[in-house]
Write a structure and sequence with these properties.
Blueprint (H helix, E strand, L loop, with lengths): L34 H18 L4 H11 L4 E5 L5 H6 L7 E5 L6 H13 L5 E4 L5 H8 L3 H4 L1 H16 L5 E3 L16 E3 L5 E3 L7 H10 L49
Parallel strand pairs: 1-2, 1-4, 2-3, 4-6
Antiparallel strand pairs: 5-6
Length: about 260
């Protein structure tokens, strides 16, 4: 009798698991932009990135409505609902995409449902990985988030969002420079690796600015943000942080990992 040995780490048992460097078969990236749109996006970033670097959220969204050479999408983590509220009247009817990693806190999924109900004029797309959570465990080994969080984020976050971006010329995200040192110099306008616009209207906001906006506009709020979770990702990889700590200190705590890849791809 020959026993197969898992040399890839993390899975355990007798099964031979797939190399986590190799993603599952299926659509994992955005379709290429038409050449004229890609060229126009590059021209826009060259002309406007510096001018928008310190601009207000409203002005950045007004710029998006006027200059983006096609439809954009809001990328919603459901940590807060500021983006969709800001977009009302400035990007009417803009689509939203939410990454349902299947590892979320229950509260995050509740916020997504509440957003869908509160903003019926904005389509909510729930992007999921090619493999379900159970299928991933069976294919690559259990709990990949523990022993290879980079591969887990690639399969459950980066690739699903890239797939959903095919219909858009750009994405509007909730990135803030105040979120931590890896984002301290982030631009308000840039290109992602597929040549799509990456637009960050609240880039200059602090966490306090965000909380003030949520309160003053009576927005849907994520309950965990009041329980020591200023930055919320998957439940398996997010811990509360102490007052005064980097807001993202609870993300992948102890692993040395600081970004999932969504803002670097």
């Amino acid at each position: 009798m020959v026993t197969s040995i898992n040399l890839l780490g993390g899975g355990g048992g007798e099964a031979a698991f797939r190399d986590p460097a190799v993603s599952p078969e299926g659509k994992r990236s955005a379709d290429p932009l038409p050449a004229d749109i890609a060229a126009r996006n590059e021209e826009l970033v060259d002309a406007w990135a510096d001018r928008l670097y310190h601009e207000t959220a409203d002005n950045i969204l007004d710029w998006t409505r006027e200059y983006a050479p096609g439809p954009v999408v809001l990328t919603m983590s459901m940590e807060n609902t500021v983006l969709v509220d800001l977009a009302q009247g400035r990007l009417p009817g803009v689509d939203m995409v939410f990454l349902d990693t299947e590892y979320h806190f229950a509260e995050t999924l509740t916020v997504a449902d509440e957003v869908e109900a509160r903003y019926p004029g904005n389509k909510l797309i729930r992007a999921k990985a090619i493999l379900s959570r159970q299928e991933q465990d069976e294919t690559y080994g259990k709990n990949m988030y523990q022993w290879n969080p980079t591969a887990c984020c690639r399969m459950r976050k980066v690739e699903p969002i890239q797939r959903e971006l095919s219909a858009y010329v750009g994405a509007v995200d909730g990135l803030r420079r105040a979120d931590g040192p890896t984002r301290a110099d982030a631009p308000a306008l840039s290109l992602n690796k597929t040549g799509r616009l990456k637009i960050s209207p609240i880039i200059t906001w602090s966490l306090a600015d965000t909380e003030d906006y949520i309160r003053s506009h009576d927005l849907i709020s994520h309950p965990l943000t009041y329980q020591g979770y200023p930055s919320i990702g998957c439940a398996t990889c997010t811990l509360p942080v102490a007052p005064g700590e980097d807001p993202r200190a609870g993300r992948w705590a102890g692993s040395g990992k600081t970004e999932c890849g969504l803002h670097t791809d």
